[in-house]
Design goal:
The chain has 428 residues and is of the alpha/beta class. It contains nine helices and 18 strands. Helices cover 24% and strands 33% of the residues. Helix 4 packs across helix 5. The mean pLDDT is 82.
C-alpha cells in the first residue's frame, strides 16, 4: 500500500432534531389550535420554542486509508455510514474534527447523484466529467467505454428523467469508475442493479484497486465486502467499533446482528398463510436442543409447519449461512418431488440431518421459508435459528487443519489409492 490519501481525525457530526406534535399528520383543526396557543403565549410574553434534541450521527471517528486500499464500511441502519461518506465527499460539513484527502474524489451516494433530469444521458456524462474536473478531451477518450459498460446505448439521447433506477445506477457508476478518480466512494446504491451488473461493478472496482486507486465501499452485502475489500470498518452508533480484516469484522457484526436468534423458536399462527412454519429447533442425535456442537456431532434441523390450503408447487426450505455467506439451500421437494404436485392440509414436522462432519468451527444461522416454486415467497424468517460449531473433540487430521485449510466447509473424503503397474495405465 502507498501513502495515506484519506486521514479522518476525531470527526463528529451533530444534528438538531425538532420535536413537535406527535403523529404523522396534522389536521387543519390542529394547526388552528396550535397557532392560537402560540399567539396566546407571545401576547403573555412567554417564549415559544419547539423541543429540540441533539443527535450525533458521528462521534470522534478516526481512521486512515492508504493509496490503493479497498475499504468496506458496514453497520446497522443509522450507524452513520452515509453521513461519513457525505463528509468524505465534501457534501456535508462536519461539526468537529477534520478530514484530509489527497486526490480527486468521485462519489456515487444515491440514484441520480450529480445528474440533471432534463439533460440526456450523453449530456450528463459530460456534466459529471466536468464536475469531477475532467477535460473534454479526457471525457471523449473514455466516452465509448462508459456507454458500453452502462449498456444504455439506445437511450443515450433520452433525458435521464425517463430512466429507470437501474439505468440511472448503471450510467452513474460507469461515469464515476471510468473517469479515473484517485478515490472512488460508493454507497449501497449498487443494490439497485441486477445481479449481472453487480458482478460487473465488482470486477471494475477490483480493477480500480489494482490500478493503485482507492475505493471506499458501503454495503449490507457481506459477500461483496469479502470479495472486494482489503479492510473493513464497523460503525455503531456513530463510532468506530472495529477496523480489521473483512472476515473478522463481518463475523463480529453478524453475531451481534443475530443476537436475538437462538437454537429454537415458536411463532404465532397466522390463519391467512396457506403454508406456515410455526416452530423450529436445532437438535443433536439424542434429540437434545442445543446451540453448540462439536465438529463431529450430528446436527439435526427440525421444522414444524401447517398446510392450510392445498396448492401445487408449495415448498418449505432453509438456507444455511456463515458470516452472511450462503453455504447452501435445501428444499423439502429436492428428494420428494411428488410434494410439488400434492400437499395435503394438516400439521407436519420435518427433520433434516446435515452430513457429519461438514461444518468448520464458527457461527452459523438458518433462514427458513415457505413459498410456491417459480411464483414467490409466502413466508421468510431471516436468521431465525443460530448455533455454534467448535473444535472440542480429540485431535485428528481434520480437526488439526479445519481452522487453517481453505474453504467454508470441512468434509473428510475417502481416498482410494492403489499401486500402479509399471508401463501400464491399469490400477490393481
Amino acid at each position: 500500500m502507498g501513502e495515506t490519501v484519506i486521514r479522518v481525525e476525531n470527526l463528529s457530526k451533530k444534528y438538531l432534531l425538532r420535536h413537535e406534535q406527535a403523529g404523522q399528520y396534522k389536521t387543519l383543526r390542529d394547526a388552528i389550535v396550535s397557532g392560537a396557543s402560540s399567539l396566546k403565549q407571545r401576547l403573555s410574553g412567554q417564549s415559544v420554542r419547539a423541543k429540540r434534541e441533539e443527535f450525533w450521527a458521528l462521534k470522534d471517528v478516526s481512521f486512515e486509508v492508504k493509496q490503493g486500499e479497498v475499504v468496506g464500511i458496514i453497520g446497522r441502519n443509522g450507524a452513520g455510514k452515509s453521513t461519513l461518506l457525505k463528509i468524505l465527499s465534501r457534501i456535508t460539513e462536519p461539526t468537529a474534527g477534520r478530514v484530509s484527502i489527497r486526490g480527486r474524489v468521485a462519489s456515487l451516494l444515491e440514484v441520480g447523484t450529480g445528474f440533471h433530469p432534463e439533460l440526456t444521458g450523453r449530456e450528463n456524462i459530460f456534466l459529471n466529467g466536468a464536475i469531477l474536473g475532467m477535460s473534454r478531451v479526457e471525457i471523449n477518450r473514455k466516452f465509448d467505454e462508459i456507454v458500453a459498460f452502462a449498456e444504455v446505448e439506445k437511450f443515450l439521447d433520452t433525458p435521464v428523467k425517463h430512466y429507470s433506477s437501474g439505468m440511472y445506477v448503471r450510467l452513474a457508476f460507469a461515469v464515476a469508475a471510468h473517469l479515473e478518480p484517485e478515490i472512488l466512494i460508493i454507497d449501497e446504491v449498487l443494490a439497485v442493479g441486477d445481479a449481472s451488473f453487480q458482478k460487473k461493478c465488482l470486477g471494475k472496482m477490483e480493477e480500480v484497486g489494482k490500478d493503485g486507486r482507492t475505493v471506499i465501499f458501503v454495503s449490507h452485502q457481506m459477500d461483496m465486502i469479502h470479495a472486494l475489500c482489503d479492510r473493513c470498518i464497523l460503525l455503531d452508533k456513530g463510532s468506530v467499533m472495529l477496523s480489521s480484516y473483512p472476515e473478522e469484522v463481518t463475523e463480529i457484526y453478524l453475531n451481534s446482528s443475530i443476537i436475538g436468534s437462538q437454537a429454537r423458536f415458536k411463532i404465532e399462527e397466522d390463519e391467512n398463510l396457506a403454508l406456515q412454519i410455526i416452530s423450529g429447533k436445532v437438535l443433536n442425535s439424542n434429540n437434545q436442543n442445543k446451540d453448540r456442537f462439536d465438529v463431529f456431532e450430528q446436527i439435526i434441523i427440525e421444522i414444524e409447519y401447517i398446510v392450510r390450503k392445498t396448492r401445487a408447487g408449495a415448498i418449505v426450505n432453509f438456507e444455511l449461512k456463515r458470516n452472511a455467506t450462503s453455504l447452501f439451500f435445501s428444499f423439502d421437494t429436492d428428494c420428494s418431488p411428488d410434494l410439488l404436485h400434492s400437499r395435503q392440509e394438516g400439521a407436519y414436522i420435518s427433520r433434516v440431518k446435515l452430513p457429519c462432519p461438514l461444518l468448520k468451527s464458527g457461527f452459523y444461522s438458518l433462514t427458513l421459508g415457505t413459498g410456491v416454486a417459480n411464483v414467490g415467497k409466502i413466508q421468510h424468517l431471516e436468521n431465525i435459528l443460530a448455533f455454534n460449531v467448535e473444535l472440542i473433540s480429540q485431535p485428528s487430521s481434520l480437526l488439526s487443519y479445519a481452522e487453517t485449510r481453505p474453504g467454508l466447509i470441512a468434509v473428510p473424503l475417502t481416498w482410494k489409492t492403489q499401486t500402479r503397474l509399471k508401463n501400464s495405465e491399469v490400477f490393481v
